[in-house]
Amino acid sequence: MTIRFYIDADLLGVAKILAGVRSDVTYPGDPGGRGPDGFERPPCPVQAGDKDVDWIPQVAQAGWIIISRDRHIQHRPAERQALIAAQAKMLRLDARHGLNKWQQLEIIVTQWRRFEQMSELPGPWLYMATRTSLRKEI
Asked: What is the pTM of this model?
């Protein structure tokens, strides 16, 4: 098993839940550890507080899919350019309604199989995920 998904710091509570049940998930500041299937997850090289323009290329180079709720990434030129230049793959939760941790987790778990299928798509791409749909934004 290898890391496949990076959960952004804006979903840290959900990230810790997912890392507790999936060995292929990491998050900023993740100390690593043994996953539920016995896989030894390495510490995450990204730290909480790292700037998006710095960690996006690092995560993309590792081949990880980013899961975030950053609804402003489309409107921040430097972050958008970092996403495109790094050929990153990002799934953004629809956060227009101030989702609580349960609602965030519900979107991720409901769409997880589709997230896994999308891992083979070449980057760059950005999709917005809701409980019932995925919409391409980049």
From this structure: 0.94
